[in-house]
Each structure stands twice: as structure tokens, then as C-alpha cells.
């Protein structure tokens, strides 16, 4: 009985503790942080890339305005190339587009351009246009960016006057490269770069599809605005004879290049005068019209390339589960 007071004390203490527990609310637990939904990634699935799409723009004087209409349609359908390659007029349009200019700005520039913007006459046995103003005009339009600074990979194709070899400029001064690509013999003076002279790329590669392939293109959309040789050439003047001669010489080269394209766009501008700026609206609208008709074919070519790349990746990983 001596321990009775201690027993009573322990009972009272226990009652006090229980009473405290009954009257004090427990602290709320912190809300759990949002956890992203669980995902399962299969490491065996082969990684594939999107097809590399190239837009190849051929030469043809002011008929190159058709290129602008084609670019407008492609852009409106979300088809944007990773590579742009151009010869002559195609290099001019291609450089502006590859520099980051959207199709509507490109159209505004094209329709606002005047002959005086690129005309610098001279008296020479090699030609009557120097080409310096053309070079300056292009550099002004691309904001003096060098080719390797363009957001889209670009190359301008020219011909080495001494060796006759194709040269694809993909680095450095954009205006200079376009000038070289556009230097039609006996019209422009040859463009001098370093110790070499260059003339129009259309002499060796009128529609430079193979250059696009060499740059890694999976899908090539080629635009051919060249004129076919015309009948009744006997009545042609000086420019007509030059144009006819170039057309005859280039047909075999054009066919050889176009055979390597996935989609060929040929606006009906072959009848047009390659130097007549008054027809620029006609050329642009014709480019839009024919490109719109070929959008399904272009999409199919890109999808076909995508499937081939997936199949190739699967072959490289035969145990993968797709």
C-alpha cells in the first residue's frame, strides 16, 4: 500500500496526456507536389530523324519570279526546306529566302525591284554589265549576313571559267556568290573571286539537284524554269540567239539533274522573255498555281522518305520493338 500514491500519480498523469491529445488538433500534412504522369520509354526503339528537304531553284532570268510564288505556296503549307540551292536567278531568290526572309517579304522585294537596282553598264568585250550593283543589292537585302550565317543552309552554283568545273559557294560573301552564279557570259563580266573567274552556273548545272544531294538532302524539290529550244529561231535577235543557244546546250544537263529529284515543278514560263521585268506578276502567279497542284505529291515524297528512314533505323537495330 506504500506505492498507492505513486500509482494514483501515474494514473493522473496518463489521464492528463490523453486529455491533451484529445484537445490539440494535429498539424496538417503538406500537400503532395504534383508528380508528372508515369511514362515508359522503350530504350530499344530506334531513334529516327526527320527527312532533310532541299529546295533547288534553277536559272532562267526574270522568270525566276516564279520561284517566289512557289516558295509562298510551300510556306503556306508548312513545308520549309533545310537546304536551298540555286543557279543564276535561282541563286538570287534562294539567297534572300535562305537568309531568313519570309515569302511575303520576298514577294515585296521582288515586285519592288527595278532594273536600275542591278544595272551597272560598261564597255567591254566580255560583257556590258559589271555585276557590282547586283552584288551590293543582294548583300543589302540579306543584311550583310554571310552565307554560313543564314538560318537555312544555302549554296549558289557557278562555273569556273578556266576549268569549266561546277563550284558551289556555301560560305562567305552572299552577294559575291550570287553575282558569280548570275554572270551570264557576254552579258555580265566574269566575277573575280581571289585569282579565279566565274560565270553563270547554268552552263554546268542549270537545276543543281546533285549539289543538293551532295549536301545531304533526302528529299529534293526541283524547280525548272528553263526555256525549251524554240522553233523559228532564224528571226531571233542578239539576246534571242544567246538564249536559244543556252537552251540547246543545257537540255541534256537539265534532264540528267532532274532525274535525281523527287518532285519537279515546271511553271509554264518557257514562252516568256527572260529579261522582261513587266512579266514578273505573271511569273509569280504561275509559280503559285503549279506549286499548289503539286503539294500532295510533295507531302507524299516527304512521308515516303520518313518511312524509309524509319525502316533503315529498324534494320540497324533488328531487335528493337517499334
UniProtKB/TrEMBL annotation:
- Report the active site residues: 88, 200
Q: Which residues form the PNPLA domain?
A: 55-213
What Pfam families does this protein's entry cite?
Patatin
Q: Where is this motif: GXGXXG?
A: 59-64
Motif: GXSXG; annotated at: 86-90
Q: Which domain of life is it from?
A: Bacteria
Do you know which Gene3D superfamilies this protein is assigned to?
Cytosolic phospholipase A2 catalytic domain
Q: Which PROSITE patterns match?
A: PNPLA, PROKAR_LIPOPROTEIN
Q: Motif DGA/G located where?
A: 200-202
Q: Mind telling me which InterPro entries this protein's record contains?
A: Acyl_Trfase/lysoPLipase, NTE, PNPLA_dom
The signal sequence is: 1-22
Which keywords does the record carry?
Hydrolase, Lipid degradation, Lipid metabolism, Signal
Q: Which PANTHER family match?
A: NEUROPATHY TARGET ESTERASE/SWISS CHEESE D.MELANOGASTER (PTHR14226), NTE FAMILY PROTEIN RSSA (PTHR14226:SF76)
Name of the protein this chain belongs to: Patatin-like phospholipase family protein
Amino acid at each position: 500500500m506504500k506505492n498507492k500514491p505513486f500509482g494514483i500519480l501515474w494514473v493522473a498523469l496518463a489521464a492528463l496526456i490523453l486529455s491533451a491529445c484529445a484537445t490539440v488538433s494535429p498539424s496538417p500534412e503538406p500537400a503532395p507536389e504534383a508528380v508528372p504522369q508515369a511514362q515508359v520509354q522503350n530504350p530499344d526503339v530506334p531513334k529516327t530523324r526527320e527527312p532533310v528537304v532541299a529546295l533547288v531553284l534553277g536559272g532562267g532570268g526574270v522568270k525566276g519570279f516564279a520561284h517566289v510564288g512557289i516558295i509562298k505556296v510551300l510556306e503556306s503549307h508548312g513545308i520549309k526546306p533545310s537546304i536551298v540551292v540555286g543557279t543564276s536567278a535561282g541563286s538570287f531568290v534562294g539567297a534572300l529566302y535562305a537568309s531568313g526572309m519570309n515569302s511575303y517579304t520576298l514577294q515585296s522585294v521582288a515586285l519592288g525591284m527595278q532594273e536600275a537596282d542591278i544595272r551597272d553598264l560598261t564597255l567591254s568585250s566580255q560583257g556590258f554589265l559589271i555585276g557590282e550593283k547586283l552584288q551590293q543589292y543582294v548583300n543589302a537585302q540579306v543584311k550583310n549576313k554571310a552565307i554560313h550565317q543564314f538560318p537555312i543552309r544555302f549554296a549558289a552554283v557557278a562555273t569556273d571559267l578556266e576549268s569549266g568545273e561546277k563550284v558551289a559557294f556555301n560560305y562567305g560573301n552572299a552577294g559575291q556568290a550570287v553575282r558569280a552564279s548570275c554572270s551570264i557570259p557576254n552579258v555580265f563580266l566574269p566575277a573575280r573571286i581571289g585569282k579565279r573567274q566565274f560565270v553563270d552556273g547554268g552552263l554546268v548545272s542549270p537545276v543543281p539537284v546533285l549539289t543538293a544531294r551532295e549536301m545531304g538532302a533526302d528529299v529534293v524539290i526541283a524547280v525548272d524554269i528553263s526555256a525549251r529550244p524554240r522553233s523559228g529561231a532564224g528571226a531571233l535577235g542578239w539576246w534571242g540567239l544567246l538564249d536559244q543557244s543556252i537552251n540547246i546546250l543545257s537540255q541534256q544537263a537539265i534532264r540528267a539533274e532532274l532525274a535525281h529529284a523527287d518532285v519537279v515543278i515546271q511553271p509554264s514560263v518557257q514562252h516568256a522573255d527572260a529579261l522582261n521585268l513587266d512579266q514578273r506578276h505573271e511569273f509569280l502567279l504561275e509559280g503559285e498555281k503549279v506549286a499548289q497542284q503539286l503539294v500532295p505529291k510533295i507531302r507524299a515524297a516527304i512521308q515516303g522518305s520518313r518511312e524509309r528512314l524509319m525502316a533503315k533505323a529498324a534494320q540497324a537495330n533488328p531487335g528493337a520493338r517499334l
